[in-house]
Amino acid sequence: MTNSNPTPEHQRLVAALIVHFQTKLGYTILNAAYNNYPKPQEHGRHAPDIVARDQRGVLHLAEAETGDSIYSKDTGEQLFDFSNRVMAGTNIPVPFHIIVYKGDYNLLVQRLRELGLGYKINNQIIIWTL
Asked: Is residue 48 part of a domain?
């Protein structure tokens, strides 16, 4: 959830995904709603929590969600917008990563299915848990 006053729980998820992207996947973090990173720009109607680039030059968008935010209107718009992005010029689908606490995993999957995005899970949508 992109807001001006993120919760510590939200920031913990963002931090965990930044570390995973950098240390395990070798991604470059371009923007992040975290500490001293440049703030992400809007992709559709909202700005994601993280924008990264992989070794092939493909952009990756990421969003951290906590239980209370998964069913908000803004989150629904973010899930839809970020899971339907393609790279300009190449039309390569932009992978969309969502990180939630383990206890919120089923709630997130249910929400994605209700939005008609269930078929993108493990394809264009990658779910991470902490």
From this structure: yes
Residue type at 10 in one-letter notation? H
- Tell me how far apart the alpha carbons of residues 121 and 79 are, in angstroms, rounded to a whole number: 11
Domain extent at residue 79: 8-89+96-113+125-129
Sequence-ordered alpha helix ranges (H) in the chain = 8-23, 73-82, 105-114
- At 38, list the tokens: 């440049």
CATH value at residue 51: 3.40.1350
Number of domains in the chain: 1
pLDDT tens-digit map of 11-65? 999 999 999 999 999 999 999 999 999 999 999 999 999 999 999 999 999 999 9
DSSP string across 70-100: TTSHHHHHHHHHHTT-B-TTT-PBPPEEEEE
**pTM flag (> 0.90):** yes
